Amino acid sequence: MTKYVIEGGRKLCGSTKVHGSKNSALPILAACIVCKGKNVIHNCPDLSDIDATCNILKHLGCTVSREGDTVIVDSTEVSENSIPDNLMREMRSSVIFLGAILSRTGEALLSSPGGCEIGLRPIDIHLDGMEKLGAQIVSEYGHIRCSNGGGLKGTKINLSFPSVGATENIMIAAASADGITVITNAAREPEISDLADFLNRGGARIAGAGESTVVIEGVKSLTGAEHTVIPDRIVAASYLSAAAFTGGEIELKSVIPAHLEPVLNVFEESGCRIDVNGRSISLTSPGRLKSVKMIRTMPYPGFPTDIQAPVAAMLTKAKGTSIIVETIFESRYKYIGELMRFGANINVDGRMAVIEGVPMLHGANVVSPDLRGGMALIVAGLGAEGTTVVADDNHICRGYETPEKVLSELNADIKRID
Ligand code: EPZ
Questions:
Q1: Does 239 sit in the ligand 1 pocket, CB within 6 Å?
Q2: In 3-state terms, the chain is what percent helix, strand and coil (to 5)?
Q3: CA-CA to 282 of 20 to 30 Å: which in 42, 62, 106, 131?
Q4: pLDDT classification of 116: cutoffs 50, 70, 90
Q5: CA–CA gap between residue 216 and residue 75 (Å, rounded)
Q6: The pTM is what?
Q7: Where would I find the H helices in 317-400?
Q8: Cα distances (Å, whole numbers) of residue 333 to 157, 165, 270, 346
């Protein structure tokens, strides 16, 4: 168990660089399986979820090495087509390997990824996409066996929901299917475009990524590629929330402001000043924030569900009442019970959280329930009076590179005790 010990009440100030996107690097690393050869992935964040993905790549027969923030994956030899239970459980999103293994080896055997802290995380849309491409799927005793018989065939696939992972799995599988695949109602997140850019560098022919309709013209085979992962928009927004909450002023470098569009409006509505300059974003907090009438999480380009928790923490001391509606995941409010221990006044009714701003929060001993909820508790501790201890069972390090170092460099008093 890791503990983050925070002495609250200090304004964040200074500037920091945002690391590469976890949710872009994960599917790109999985896609190395279909880009046969040496793949060089730059700006790959140093996170436990990335380590778990590299372990799966090694299990499948790839050689994987890291030089700083560059991960090199040689997928010339892929000898395995199954992911054992222990590796699947290490990271729920390892379902992203399904399309890659199926396409490369003709058969994929995964244990059902199971749910996680934020919800059941079904994979029916992924499996429906694989079936439409011609795979046969057998689910038995908690395992899923997908085989593509005579090879995958391009087809039209309409997603019942713009699932990020399902869009990614289908793109990867369709890249070397026979014929053209058209995905409609595709997810539009920036990570989808980044994955398409990587695959196209490996010889794929993907058009329309980032829009609702993606067209993939299958090619015979793909080769190894070199790629630089986009910055992590969720990490960027998390640190902006911390600066806003502590009345500070920070600059984030190497971000893509356009990816943060849906969140910047919320910061401005809460009274912060946002300055965009090329690949930097600066936020100046007014001190006490104004409440934000309504935040509804939506698929991109709507407000991202992953930033709901840190923004809720930021609004606990705002003047007035803020309302958040979480439309994507069914249990993404576990952190709110912990926020109440700081003295926050929040009511949760189903998918809706009503935050009544209070004049101050006092430090508390809390336990992080999941990755983004854990960051919300750190944000709360930074803006609370007194000492906070966030006990964290390796959730936060899945998505944030050394947050204690980044925040200390921004004038916070935070220590990590392993
Ligand atoms: C990706 O998860 C991200 N993870 C999540 O980030 C993010 O919250 C989510 O997209 C939404 O933006 C990675 O990219 C590794 P979905 P994913 O498929 O692909 C339902 C974080 O904190 N659904 O778009 O799993 C699902 O239950 C993580 O970094 C089905 O019903 O998200 C959910 O309600 C958390 N059937 C909704 O769709 C399916 O087959 C969105 O899921 C697939 C999804």
A1: no
A2: 35, 30, 35
A3: 42
A4: confident
A5: 22
A6: 0.98
A7: 334-340, 371-382
A8: 33, 22, 21, 11
Residue partners of 140: CB distance under 8 A and separation at least 6: none
Q: How many CB atoms lie within 10 A of CB 391?
A: 16
* Nearest residue to 385 via CA among 9, 12, 10, 11: 9
Handedness of CA 332, 189, 382, 4 (dihedral sign): positive
pLDDT tens for 317-351 read 999 999 999 999 999 999 999 999 999 999 999 99
Q: For tokens 């003047």, what's the residue? A: 319
Mean pLDDT of 75-86: 93
Question: Among 161, 230, 308, which residue has the most ligand 1 atoms within 8 Å of its CB, making it the best to mutate?
Answer: 161
pLDDT value of residue 149: 74
28: tokens are 């790109």
Burial per residue of 76-115, b for 16 or more beta-carbon CB atoms within 10 angstroms, e otherwise: eebebbbbeeebbebbbbbbbbbbbbbbbbbbbbbbebee
Question: Does the annotation mark 116 as catalytic?
Answer: yes
Neighbours of 411 (CB within 10 A): 16
Whether residue 93 has its Cβ less than 6 Å from ligand 1: yes
